[in-house]
Amino acid sequence: MTLDQLRLFIAVAEREHVTAASQAMNVTQSAVSAAIAALEARYGVKLFHRVGRGIALTDAGRLFLPEARAVVAQATAAENILKDISGLRRGTLKVVASQTIAAYWLPAILVAFRKRYPDIKVELAISNSEEASRMVREGEAEVGIVEAVVDDPALTQWPVGEDHMILVQASSLLPPLIDAAWLRQQNWVMREAGSGTRAALELYLGRYDIGIEDLNISLVLPSNEGVQTAIEAEAGIGALSSLVVDPALRAGTLHAVLQVPESRFFYGLRHKERYQSPAATALLGMSEFTAVSRGVQT
């Protein structure tokens, strides 16, 4: 039994006329007759009385008609859902972002996306870069945005934004010279392993041939806000995104020791083989995601 057969049966039943049904459905009379005959032959029932040139529903046909209508209506509803999804009139987009991005960079973009596509629901999860990449790899999120290059052959990644890391402290007394010896002498407050902020700090320290194990670490905290608060309480120095510390620098509760010269990029992530929904395509096609690098992927 096919949907086309059901549609042709309904058309004939409603008009009690094969020619009128064929004209309404824009098919030949023989196609209509063949569809009805196929249904009758397959199930061994007669759906229509054929008396002379007239046609009328049998008892079986009358019982079958509301069921056929219900099936076609349900199929039409399913088809409309797919049309709505492809036309961005319905759907859910699952995004995961690392903390700095989710708290400071991404919200304005999601607001712009929501205004443009008000019928698309966005579900945002917040994790560190390592966990975010796992979620995209395993299909728990369709789009990821992280602060570090991810070593995962299953994922496509490309730069979508940038900022700078700033080394900050509570004291306004800045050191005259920043070298490896000074960095090793300080007490440090830092993010947990796996975070993009931690990875950026490790990359910077590598310029001085310093590993994390060479530092005096006073606290390791799982959020930017926790690190900032601890540094303000004079627990040590630390490196945070300029997006995070700019308000504190302006307020004077933190002081910049130095700005890391190299830009730190934010990277979009998606699975190389999983289907990309129209909603994800629309989000990633927004100008905010293409301003830094158009089509550059790793």
Please provide a written account of the structure.
This is LysR family transcriptional regulator. Keywords: DNA-binding, Transcription, Transcription regulation. Pfam families: HTH_1, LysR_substrate. By secondary structure, the protein is an alpha/beta fold. It is 46% helix and 22% strand. The protein is built from twelve helices and twelve strands. The strands form four sheets. Strands 4-3-5-12-6 form a five-stranded mixed sheet, with helices on both faces. Helix 2 packs across helix 3. The relative contact order is 0.14.
Percent strand equals 15-25%
Any idea what the shape is? rod-shaped
Which spans of ≥5 residues are poorly predicted at pLDDT below 50?
A: 293-298
Radius of gyration: 32 Å
Question: What is the terminal separation in angstroms?
Answer: 48 Å
How would you state the average pLDDT, rounded? 89
Key attributes of the depicted protein:
five-stranded mixed beta sheet; alpha/beta; three-stranded antiparallel beta sheet; single chain; 298 residues
Helices and strands in order:
Elements: H1 3-15, H2 18-25, H3 29-43, E1 48-51, E2 54-57, H4 59-86, E3 92-97, H5 99-116, E4 121-126, H6 129-137, E5 143-146, E6 155-163, E7 165-169, H7 180-185, E8 187-191, H8 196-205, E9 216-221, H9 224-232, E10 238-241, H10 242-251, E11 255-259, E12 264-271, H11 278-284, H12 287-290
Parallel strand pairs: 3-4, 3-5, 8-9
Antiparallel strand pairs: 1-2, 5-12, 6-12, 7-10, 7-11
Helix pairs in contact: 1-2, 1-3, 1-4, 2-3
